[in-house]
Amino acid sequence: MIHALRAETRRLLSRRLTLMALLALLGLIALFQLQVNAEVTPPSATEIIQSQQEYDEYLRDWEAHHEEWEAECVSSGGTPQECVMPRPEPSDWGLAPASFRDVVPGAVTFAVYLGGMALFVVMASFIGAEVTTGSLANWLTFVPNRATVLVSKLVVVAGASIVIGALVGLVTVASSVAVTAFHGQPLTGLDQVVSMAARGVVVVAIFGVLGFCIGLLTGSTGATVGVLLGGIVLVFVRSVLVFSSTWAQRLSPWSPEVNLSAILGGGTRYAVSTSPGAGGDGASGGFVEKTVTLTHGLGYWAVLLAALIAVTWLVFRRRDVV
């Protein structure tokens, strides 16, 4: 097993796609820090004067009409949490820089999902190339035990995904801290941001294992990427339906993307219509807010990955890879 693990690690690290994806990932994370920098940079005197006028005007409108705006939003099909019109904050109008707590979670979310999708493609290519080129069949002549081969590959995939996920979180948080400190802003909510980045390691690892298993099942990198794109389309369609369809709202606790969000955010919320109209249309009536917990998200993905790995093993043990 040790020999197989070393061989799989060398094979993964020697692939050019692995290095290119890692460099591109770190480059995009660094590029996103420009947005963080823009958010935490204190405004100039001229910008403050202009923004103060705009802020005062909007604040007067908000105080007079925000309840009416919220009611119109709910009546048009929005959920209460989506229709809340919070009191405008000075930082939202450029009167003060945004806080570390408000800005950096977005940077972490961007880095985690970007890293996850990059790992999905890398791990799909890692096994897909072996299947299509026939190198997997050659490897089985040296290690004829298919269980050993699959386990060693899965261990390397999961381990590499965890390491890269940790690197992604570390680079994002460290660079955000450096940018914020450079402008003399307080690091409010640093502990929550670090915890979020730590949970992001799990999300990145899930994407890596998914890419490997689907790549082995399809036997093609292109087909696996197609599965990823199809999943993104389904997520988009459900996000549209959830505004008006009660059945789509009730599917939220069992939706992959919602449970990923629950893991990353330490829990997430969704709303369900309490008085659906005809045909399951949730546009009329009230809403009740519910929570998908971190434990639920972890349990959901543990069961889903266990089932996927079991199916992958059943297919691989009988598959002709010649």
Number of helices: 12
Helix content: over 70%
Strand order of the largest sheet: 1-2
Low-confidence stretches: 277-284
Q: Which structural class should the secondary elements be placed in? A: mainly alpha
For the biggest sheet, the summary is: 2 strands, antiparallel
Average predicted local confidence, pLDDT = 86
Portion in strands: under 5%
Please give the number of β-strands: 2
What pattern of helices and strands is seen along the backbone? HHHHHHHHHHHEEH
- Number of separate domains: 2
- Overall body shape: globular
- Separation, N- and C-terminal Cα atoms: 23 Å
Radius of gyration: 24 Å
Describe this structure in words.
The structure is a single chain. With 322 residues, the chain is mainly alpha-helical. It has 2 domains: 2-42 and 99-318, no CATH class; 44-96, no CATH class. It is 75% helix and 4% strand. The chain has helices at residues 2-14, 16-40, 45-75, 80-83, 100-133, 135-142, 146-182, 190-218, 221-241, 246-250, 256-265, 294-318, and strands spanning 268-273, 287-292. The longest helix is centred in the middle third of the chain and has 37 residues, at 146-182. It is globular and about 75 Å long. Residues 277-284 have low confidence and may be disordered.
